Amino acid sequence: MPTNSEKRYIPGLEGVVAAETRLSSVDGQKGELLIAGFPVEALAANASHEEVAYLLWHGDLPSPSQLADFRQALAARRSLPPATHALLRAAAAEKIPAMDALRMAAGTLNLDAGENLPFTLLARAPLAVTAYWRLRHGREPVAPDPDLGQAANYLYTLTGERPPAARVRALETYLNTVGDHGLNASTFTARTIISTGSDLVSAVAGAIGALKGPRHGGAPGPALQTVFEIGTIDNAEPVLRHKLEAGARLMGFGHRVYKVRDPRAELLSAAAAGLYRSGDAAQGGMPLYELAAHVEKVAVALLEEFKPGRKLQTNVEFYTALLLHGVGLDPDLFAPTFASGRLAGWIGHCLEQQSNNRLIRPQSVYVGERDRQWQPLDQR
Ligand code: ACO
Asked: Which regions in the chain score pLDDT beneath 70?
């Protein structure tokens, strides 16, 4: 065990290896993301989200009968406990952000669930988001449709209407794209919690809290806001330059691991273009897409000018915003929708950690004072 003076502090644990995983591999220099051995590009727009969740939990793609059982197990659990509804109703009265409502609701999702928490959480957490959204807008929650899968039910229970296939596919591509991503902050949080011998509900609730921050999953709302604020192609340069001169961070750019364009940005950009071009987008259209593509180009060039050599490139969040806008989601739903996709990965990582657990317990270097003298209260 190193002494205090021998310990080396690595801020943000940058470059520290804290787990072995079979779930995903992130190569920040090549811009490569593998999900259980598959390039994310092979899965994102082709697989159902249930197939990706199965792959993350079992290490292999399901056969048709395994997939049918998996979908059935989710469908059987896709309803919220009455206490969760009551909590969401109270949260809606306070109009709290949807991500906070999800964090609160997460702790109640297993109330009447019994066994098989992975399925319960995967089926119910997205439902808590959509039920909350309806309650917050004065509408009653809609019961899921047992014939629909994870992505279609998300949109159905949000709007109460059967969603067009193009929107379901766009959302499903998104959920698959963000299903897992190495040892990011929220996944590390989940693994740390489960490593103490705690339970899956606690791990997921903690991960939701970690994902919420703007340096992790909370960026796409502000990223879209910036595109709207810019409004026209001519404004991109002056608005972004002004932000950088004021010391602001451009949301949707920069990444701890990727030093080239995030491969998920490419996938989501293509998915957004496809949705807008199809004419089935719920809001926005090709002019918005073209504006965003221009904003991206200007932002990357300005980041190189302001932060030379930092290699600040587009991350997953920039085109997340554009795609989810086209799917019909309000910016307040972006982060909880990200959580709904990342759930499959969080749960997979918890199962992996449990299968070969060692308590995650790093150390700190003490940099405070020593040899201080106690002073009674009346002498301070
Ligand atoms: N805009 C402007 N400057 C930036 C940005 C940005 N988006 N990102 C990093 N920088 C600058 C920092 O100010 C810093 O500059 P300095 O050295 O002159 O002080 C330098 O680049 C390095 O930044 P760090 O914060 O040390 O890099 P880190 O690896 O911690 O950052 C992070 C990663 C948090 C994602 C950062 O790039 C950021 O804040 N981006 C904006 C928010 C965002 O898009 N978050 C989503 C990330 S993707 C995800 O988690 C799913």
From this structure: none
